[in-house]
Amino acid sequence: MLGEIEINQIKKVFKDNIESNFIAGGNLLVMKDGKEIFYHEDGFADKLTGAKIKRDSFFKLYSMTKPVTAAAVMILLERGLIDLYEPVSKFLPGFRDQMVDTNGTLVPVERAVTLKDLLSMTSGIVYGGNGIAGKDTENLLKELDERLFSNSPMSTIDAMNKLGKCALAFQPGFVWEYGLSADVLGAVIEVVSNKSFGQFLKDEIFEPLEMLETDFWLPKDKRNRLVKTYEADENGKLNEYTTNHLAINHKMDRKPAFESGGAGLVSTIDDYAKFATMLINNGSLNGTQILRPKTVKYLTSATLTTSQQKGLNLWSTFCGFSYGNLMRVMTDCTKAGDFAPLGEYGWDGWLGSYLCNCPSDNLTILFMMQKTDAGTNSVTRKLRNIILSSCCN
Questions:
Q1: What angle do CA 227, 228, 232 make, to 5 degrees?
Q2: Which residues of 230-245 are buried (b: 16+ CB within 10 A; e: fewer)?
């Protein structure tokens, strides 16, 4: 358990990194056996006004949206409404007759992209970059952003059907590469459930778990609690960041037509804790069952083949981890560069939100911050190492 020494170490990490301008601020929650054992907040929600981060502050989750999307897919899976080997084109016709970028030449897919490919990030769908596939995807994201506030914004299904017309970076199933796969799953959920993605999440996850402050936008009376986003300039100074990213409305001030399953949610640390605790409780929280225990076990297991793993291995800070169902999973502690028990899982967001669940110790760590290109950064790893070295067997 966390003692006075560890608590002081945690507070020092916060203080040092705020004073050095590495982060503006953040909050941290640690839970064990479903109960809070530590909470800490420090720093600024708005450096200009001096407003402090609070427990009820809102954070844009970005890729910490992905585990929620994966859980939504599991709901459909355990109800027999989908089969993970079904082609995406069954639900989204834009994915028919796809082409693959092979050294600048487009060739037909050897097999169709499946739902399992999307969950494991082995679909060939990327976020951008060099080559035909990267440029196609970047152009789509640019169009999505340009139409965000127009009279004809792209819907989730329309956007993903257009994505299906973009070239793939590699043959489906060939290797792991991070991309827009989770966004496609959001559109699939819409088709299968005959509801908007947001409404499905509300009906099946948020309302049952009483996650009343998690959504794809914020009403007017909540926007003053949204933490400002910062980016570091070439001298390390933090400046406010106000640009949309991945076609997500930065102000979160209107209900979007495109509900991003990979990056779109905004939440508080306590709201997300309900989702994290549900997972570590094998699918239930306070008597409400969202997923069955065997479903959670599958959801939080690694699914990459040895060949696919080579793509993840290019991420140098992911030593010891594999991947499955839109989350990292610790599979080899001897190779890890930080403390983590076998089976630890979770994910992070572009602005630094972070989930860590350790089933073997019934432990959850949640850390929230808002800095561009943060992901799992050095602050997160330092905090995580203090906690895991103290609270895990």
A1: 130
A2: bbbeeeeebeebeeeb
Provide the pLDDT for residue 376: 95
Indicate the helix (H) or strand (E) that contains 365. Answer: strand 363-368
Q: Which residues contact 117 (CB under 8 A, 6 or more apart)?
A: 88, 123, 124, 172, 173, 181
Cα separation, 102 vs 113, in Å, equals: 16
Secondary structure letter of residue 106 according to DSSP: E
| pLDDT per position as a tens digit, 288-313 | 999 999 999 999 999 999 999 999 99
Q: Where are the alpha helices (DSSP H) in the chain?
A: 4-19, 66-78, 115-120, 131-146, 156-164, 181-193, 197-201, 269-280, 293-299, 306-312, 378-391
Element (H, E) at 331: none
pLDDT digits (tens, 9 = 90+) for 67-124: 999 999 999 999 999 999 999 999 999 999 999 999 999 999 999 999 999 999 999 9
Q: Give the pairing of strands 345-348 and 99-102.
A: unpaired
